[in-house]
Design brief:
With 389 residues, this protein is an alpha+beta fold. The chain is 38% helix and 29% strand. It has 12 helices and 20 strands. The chain binds adenosine-5-diphosphoribose (APR) and P-hydroxybenzoic acid.
């Protein structure tokens, strides 16, 4: 079997790249380790930048997004139970859209299937090979049978735990990493969200976030120590702690209910450089991870797809590979800005175990400055709605 581009991983990065390439008549095959049901069942953040929306429109999946997505013109920040608003719209003339990543993945799956794109689910032992030759290929097993796909290029869209990143020789790669000394305990509950807008709260007990999926589906998070046992967190205990951390007006009106999902996630910043080697390109979580505080994970994956899709299009339509050569550099320039922003949001809104009284004063003044300075709010707003591609 032969194709133009083999895409390893059928998460948001791989699916979006596949769809955009297919629209341009560039043949591709997606190899996904898990079943479709598994991939479309994962719950992830749901704040989309306007650049992301444009890309999803280009992919032809904007109908449901326009119907069911919620436009947010601002976010709420809170410090010691006192809330204030950052007006994203006024500061940037842009908004963000709240629409679950799970839904984006479902929409992409369904349009790719409808338009006869090729996704091979339950692909085992996927391995990119001969990446540094003119004849790269990918091997895998399907139902126990060995398969091989010859191709021109390989896109490693297989997430942080995928195989693709490990193909780049150790002598070439440099990894940058920060692991944060806490996690996020998140719940999903079929209750009306406490606020029309997201609330990011810094409190003496730690960070809290009030988010949502729709008018009757709320998503809440609280910062917890690493290695916290989730069994200790009954719904009641979670709601009590959340109430303590949110701004007073929100805490007083929150509607509680049974959690329909509860999990703890660690927080990490990670970047692998370069993001390409010979015939292989890394995209999305395969190359970088951000802590969820700035809601940048999916948006960053989409901007990588933007650069790679354009570069491949130039290659196939005009026989130019300059943009392919520049892919890593172009993508990394935007990646690092989002890494910085997510690190800053995390550092500003969480309690660190080793936080000294000096650190605390710096955090206090950072947030006070944010509340009172339009310039400071604009920096946050510009990054939150998404930097240009
Ligand atoms: N072979 C094939 N597929 C693989 C392999 C492998 N060896 N390893 C992982 N995968 C698949 C995973 O099952 C997953 O479906 O690759 C996909 C990677 O998807 P994500 O982890 O979602 O990464 P990405 O598509 O880059 O999306 C980035 O979406 O998932 C969120 O937190 C993530 O917000 C970030 C954004
Ligand atoms: C979410 O809704 O899950 C969410 C929203 C914003 C974030 C992180 C997660 O910054």
């Amino acid at each position: 079997m032969r194709t133009n581009v083999v895409i390893i991983g059928g998460g948001p990065s791989g699916l979006l790249l596949s769809r955009l390439l297919s629209i341009d008549g560039i043949n591709n095959v997606v190899l996904e380790k898990q079943s479709e049901q598994h991939v479309t069942g994962r719950i992830r953040a749901g704040v989309l930048e306007s650049g992301t929306i444009e890309m999803l429109k280009k992919a032809g999946i904007s109908n449901r997004l326009e119907r069911e997505g919620f436009k947010h013109d601002g976010i709420q920040l809170s410090f010691k139970n006192h809330g204030f608003r950052v007006n994203l719209k006024k500061l940037t003339n842009k908004h963000v859209t709240v629409y679950g990543q799970t839904e984006v993945t479902k929409d992409l799956y369904s349009i790719i299937r409808k338009e006869d794109g090729e996704i091979i689910n339950n692909a085992e032992d996927v391995l990119p090979q001969a990446v540094n030759t003119q004849t790269p290929f990918v091997t895998f097993k399907k139902n126990g049978i060995e398969k091989k796909i010859m191709c021109d290029w390989i896109a490693g869209c297989d997430g942080f735990h995928g195989i693709s990143r490990s193909i780049i020789p150790k002598s070439i790669v440099k990894n940058y990493e920060r692991i944060y000394p806490f996690g996020w305990l998140g719940i999903l509950s079929e209750t009306p969200p406490v606020s029309d807008e997201l609330i990011y709260a810094n409190h003496g007990n730690g960070f809290a976030l009030a988010s949502m999926r729709n008018n009757n589906l709320s998503r809440y998070y609280i910062q917890t120590p690493l290695n916290e046992n989730i069994e200790h967190w009954t719904d009641e205990k979670f709601w009590d702690e959340l109430r303590k951390r949110l701004p007073t007006e929100a805490a007083e009106t929150i509607v509680t209910g049974i959690s329909i999902e509860k999990s703890i996630a660690p927080l990490r910043s990670f970047v692998c450089e370069p993001m390409s080697w010979k015939k292989l390109f890394l995209v999305g979580d395969a190359a970088h991870i951000v802590p969820p505080t700035g809601a940048k994970g999916l948006n960053l994956a989409v901007s990588d797809v933007y650069y790679l899709h354009n570069a491949l299009k130039n290659y196939y339509q005009f026989n130019k590979n300059d943009d392919l050569k520049m892919y890593s550099q172009n993508a990394l320039s935007r990646v690092w800005k989002a890494i910085r922003f997510s690190w800053w949001m995390t550092t500003t809104f969480h309690k660190f175990p080793e936080q000294s009284s000096f650190d605390q004063r710096i955090q206090d003044s950072e947030i006070e400055y944010l509340e009172n300075s339009v310039a400071s709010q604009r920096v946050l707003a510009e990054n939150y709605v998404g930097l240009p591609y």
